[in-house]
Amino acid sequence: MNLLFESFAQLIGRAPRKPTKEEIKPAAQKIHFYKRGEKLDREEARALHAAHKSNKWRNRRWVTLIAINLLFVVSYKLDIQLLEGALTASRFLGFHMADLNSSLQVTLAFKEILLNLVIGTVTILLLWLLLGGRTFCSWVCPYHLVAELAEKIHVKLVDSKIIKGYDFHRGVRTFLYILFALLALVTSYTVFEFFSPTGILSRALIYGPGLALVWVGALLLFEVFVSRRAWCRYVCPIGMTYGLVGLFSPMRLVYDLDGCQHEGECRKVCEVPHVLEPVIKGRATDRSVPIGADCTRCGLCIDTCPTGSLRFEVKGLSKLL
Amino acid sequence: MSEDKDKPKSNAGAVHKAAMNPRQQKARRRFLRSVGLAVGMAGISLMGFVPVLQSHQSRMRLRPPGALGEHEFLASCIKCGQCVQVCPVEAIKLSDFLDGFGSGTPYLDARTQACDFSCDGLQCVLACPTGSLTHEMSYPAQTRMGFARLDKPKLCLARKGLGFEGKVRTPEFDGLFRYTEIDRWNPIPVRDRDFDLEICDLCVRHCPIEIRRQQCAEGNPPSGDPNQCPPLPAISLEPLPSGDGKMRMTPVIHKGCVGCGACEMVCPTEPASIVIDIDKTADMV
User: Fold this and answer.
1) Which of A98, A170, A238, B260 is a Cys-bridge partner for A89, taking CB atoms 3.0 to 4.6 Å apart?
2) What's the predicted TM-score (pTM) here?
3) Closest Cα of chain A to B37: distance in Å?
4) Contact at 8 Å (CB) between A132 and A246?
5) Which of these, A186, A196, A292, A272, lies nearest to A229 by C-alpha position?
6) Smallest Cβ distance to A206: which of B76, B81, B98?
7) B254-282 burial by CB neighbour count: b if 16+ within 10 A, else e?
8) What is the pLDDT of residue A37?
């Protein structure tokens, strides 16, 4: 329960909290105690990371993301009616599916409960409840993919001191989330859908490019030159919605304290590094700590970690097996 | 913020700013920056208002069959384009960014490709997941997209007493139409057909409502379903009194017109003599 609350608090923008001594389980305290004496050998860590280098999860994810988006395109272009529509709403083999945030916007704007939309929304809700919530972001959303490429450029520019990156308070996303909901309710327009890069890119892929791509381009430029992953971190209500679903999802990442050397490379590659706060030396409250709901389950941290201290877990499944 | 609370009260005011340590300054800048991001994003999203508030005819869109009133339509459309995908004549397009809150919503450009109801069963309505295209209608005659109007009577060939010979529009025009007598199931480009008419009646003979009325009169309602029969006429050619003894006719639009735009698409004059008024429907006349 406490973990759930902490996960929610972080999702809506609170900075991760340093656990008190009482909150750390004795087993973890023992490990923290022994690790206190160990000093990280930078050279050794660098060598370890160089030798480890893996893109397993990233490649799997990119293939999945591209395949899903291509399935929309191919389904329409070849008229095979496999996956009709776009990411905002679709039919998979005839079954309704509707993006949770798009449904929310439409329902608030239209103020009527629409049966097909309810069916589609519940289907998608159950799907992402099983698969982890923000898993949608990194495994399906086409903006995520282009933003990852923009992020690479941004990080290079910052590393070579050509530009300085700026961060924002993550509470901005919560503020905008409530604002977009209220705007839909008050104006009766699906205000967010107007400039959602997810919807724009999905439609551009399927129905052909348009002027709206200029807006997506502007967003990417902002992320390259001003703020790393700004849209996904501080703005997108779709991520927030799926984050809320992810709070209750059994599919998540877990951090194992034992073998971790606390070199912090995982936090450097993470889109939402606040979720990886437990990997900081002395912060883990238990030998295994589940990662919070804001995590997009992208697996970049798993790819980066040479000690296997981060892994996917389906809660309850290990007990069943 | 919480840092301010820790300060002794007497310290507030002019000294406050000077007394800020670098960390507080950094936090303050970050706070202001975050307010800027929130305001900026909200501001950009609200720019979608600009196009929808300009409600004059030039900005209005001809919506697919079954579309709710414009305001309800924009509220309920989820912008997925499933209607686009099912249309057999590919009449439906999605509007772009400049339509503001309307961007991503479906519309037709009648002159380029009208709705000819060649799917008979209103596929776009069936495909719509939100009922933006209302599921309360099943037949072409029930739809209310707009209402036809003879916009340029001086250009109209029939009114000049002229016939029509050759292909509709230009040889490059790729608008589609289903001619039941040629192919029951597949629409073909209108340019594939040659006409030789004593007096031009292309608008009347392409009217999907009139075609259905004729089929029904012959005892052949589409899909054998008598419900497909439109109760009211949509358009007819009526004699135009003229002093010179030449036979002149004029298209007259009736209450059965649903505004599908087929007449506008096939009108051979440039610009089209007959157009669709988007802000009008049969229920208003």
Assistant:
1) A98
2) 0.92
3) 8
4) yes
5) A272
6) B81
7) eebbbbbbbbbbbbbeeebbbbbbbebbb
8) 82
